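Section 5.1 Outputs to date
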Amino acid sequence: MTEFNYIVTDNDKELSVKELLRRNFHFSSRLMTKLKHQDLVTLNGQPVRGWMTPLPGDKLTVKLPEETCDFPPEDIPISVVFEDKDLLVINKQPGYVVHPTKGKPNHTIANGVMKKMIDDGESYKIRFANRLDMNTSGLLLIAKNSFTQDRLIRQMKADIIEKRYLAVVDGIIGEDSGTVNAPIGRPDHDEVERWILPVSEGGYDSVTHYRVLERFGSGYTLVELRLETGRTHQIRVHMASIGHPVTGDHLYNNGDPFLYRKLHGDFRRIEGAEEKSTSEYIDRQALHAYRLSFIHPVTNEKTELEAPLPDDIKSLIEKVRGL
């Protein structure tokens, strides 16, 4: 159980316990309510109420609530990159949805993390701080308590968390670097696809920076991408919108999926089309979340993590390099 301690100083005179908690720990209102109802705040080891006023030298202790999950555990491999009592970062393999949905209630990363938790003798609520598409691999942040999740979300909103991806895209990108600044929305709320959509029509501001790492004469480019925003399918939509879709991307390989359907029919009605890669060299979109940089929510230490390119993208690069 995560525990926070604070020694009251002379500068804290006349401040109540509640005021001290808000000033020094920035707990959310929801968490403050849980701490109160579960008596998880003590002063010098004794129960305390929020209205009480401590004295200089007093020790204020806060224990975060114990929580658990009820996802059915499944034997799904979980590759740990970083873990402590507050945070778990894994290198997600492609082929798995992160969180159960109506269409995919089981066989998700959440089910695999649940088994890991049980095997490790731990108990926490699984809170995903970022999401990756089913066939995107790479670093996935999982908060083990609400405080950690809240701090990570605040960092994302403040653009403190830096997310970088590696991708192989179709075509040769001429410029060495560039930025795609175009709002992304969901033109049809009954469909999963996104596309460039004006803010006035429901789109959300979206910014992707890209940098060319290698060009392949066979008609492909290896790029590093950095996100300022984290919209669903952002990289896939933005790169397709400039004529360089992520290699193998079944949704956006032909550009605007809605226009493509209008001109050529609904490719999704072809059996297996939703899951089938459009590339002969890789079985999924060649997109990997390889680097994360953030401030650890509890220790306040700068944390930088990397996940190496998976074998299928390495193999793709070798194949297109040799063509």
